[in-house]
Every structure is written in C-alpha cells, then in structure tokens.
Amino acid sequence: MAYIKNIWYVAAWADEISDNKLLARKLLDVPVFFFRDTGGNPVALLDRCPHRFAPLSMGIIRGNCIECSYHGLRFDSAGKCVHNPHGDGRIPVRATVPSFPVVERYSAIWLWLGNPEEADPALIPEFDFMEPEQNFVGTGTMHVKGNYLLEVDNILDLSHIEFVHPMFSSPAVSKAQVTHELVDDTVWSRRDIMEDETPPDFIRQAMNVPEGPVDRWLHVHWQAPSYMALFAGGVAAGQPFEHGMVSKQAHWFTPETGQTTHYFYAVTQPRSIGPHGADIVNQGVEVLKAPFQYEDAPIIEAQQSRLGETDLMDLYPIILNVDAASTAARKIIAKKIQSEKSRAV
Q: How confident is the model at residue 173 (pLDDT cuts 50, 70, 90)?
C-alpha cells in the first residue's frame, strides 16, 4: 500500500517506552523498535540485525547500545555497530542498522520514516491540549484489523453514533446541522445538534447541564494523514456555545499494514480544574474504550473483510452528504502521495 512517507506518525505513547524496556512495533509495513538511551531520549531503529536478520527487539539494552541476542553484535543509538565479539573484533563496513528521526511530544513518540533530511519537528501537528505540563492526559490504544482510512472516515462522519453507539446518542444526531470546511490542507467537520435533544444522563452529567433540552456539538479537526482533534460540547438549549463545557479528545491512527491500524486515543482536562481532573480523564478513557472495542472495531473490521486488498474508493461507493469531510481528507492524502511519487521520479 502507498503511504505518505515524509510526514510524522505517532508510534507509541511516551510511557510505553521506559528505561531498560524495548518496544517493537510495525509501522507502515516497517518493523521498528524503540528504547531510551541513558539520557532518557527515545531511539528508533529498524528491527533487523544486518548479520542474520534476527529482530533486534529480542536483544538487550547495554547503555546507549542494543546487543543482538543471536550473536552479540552491538549497535549504538545511531545504528552503527560498535562491538563485534567474534574473531579479531573487526567491524564490517556494512554493519549498520537504519535509524529513524524520533521526537517526544504531546505525551507521544513521533516517528519519521521518510527522508531524514526533511524531518523537521516543527511539522508535527499542533495538539496544544495534549501538553502534559498544562493538562491531565488519559491515553488508550487499540489494534484494529482495518485500514487506517476507514478509521479516519469513522471519526470525520459521526452520524454513525446514532446507529452504532446508542448509549451516546439520540435521533437528534442525524437531524443535526452538518458542515465541513477546508482550511489549507486540513478539514473541519462540524455537527451541531440543536433539536431540543434529551441526551443520556451520563452525557448530561459530563457536560454539567441541568435537566431539560440540550444543545450539543461535535467538531472534528483533521490533519494529514490521520490526526484528529474532537471537541465534544454541550450547553442548556438556547445558550451560547461558549457557556458550555467542552471535552477535548485526540484520535490518532497510524497504519501498521494496509489492513491493520494502531489507534491512539486520549481524553484531556486542564490542570487548572484541580487534582480530580486526573480521575476525570482516566474515567473518560475507560468510558470510550468499550464502544471503540465492541462497536466501532467490529464494523470497521467487517468493512475490511469485504474490501480485502481493494481501496474503498476504487469500488465507487455511493456518497452521502455526511461523507463530504472524509472524502475531502482522502483527496488530500491521495494528492500528497502522488506528489511524493512525482518527486521520486
């Protein structure tokens, strides 16, 4: 499958990589492993020893180096072999392992698999509400047996919650005012639910709105290739949106392969609300986990089983008004992939 290569992808949550712990993960069909050097900085190397191609993630961390568990070759954080325990100890010229630019930001580990000379950290998309110094951040992960673009469709078109997630929804969702907007190479999808909705009690409590009808909104901001910020808010019917409470969530999808995806999601609250904010975000992650795992994932995995290796758009699906945002996002991705191919010629 074709991917945008010269762009940052989330590879892991920062706390998945700790001292003396290796993390192996396939990303964009590439086997990569991560560890932290003695300064606590994340390191990313190709998960394949150049000697007999054993996974280096099976090895042992030796200071700033990784020792292959098969024959004991050691490679530093730049991927250069620095120790050969065999014969006269001479290190072969080709004894190197590809290393990848990696940045720790927004509680996550960001990886660049394209041209390393273009790996500018300033290109990492902005998610200021994910800054752990100013916000409580609760995180979760899922492995989904479906293409990452199916997940992008899922979040950009939240009309499905009325049918897939009845605990979150009411018939007012499909009657919402739905708009989308392109801003440079990003997409906004806005769903404003203002039909005197009576939401489930737990949503009313989360939004701190009194008894009676409620106005709700679900605004999603997408950035290539698959990063979305979801702003879910609510207020007593007829009140200005700025009087309501907003839950800020991150939904990030990184392809593992053309048919499988790493899903990273987070719920945040500002630290200014007090220490109970930590409990709120942790509860929020748990509340979201079940619908993702038992409602969204089965649908997406069933879609994938019907598609096989065929891209959804190649089958010419019917397009509804609710598909406008996701269709725009897919076009942007296709344009970026084509641009990279043209540059490579």
A: confident
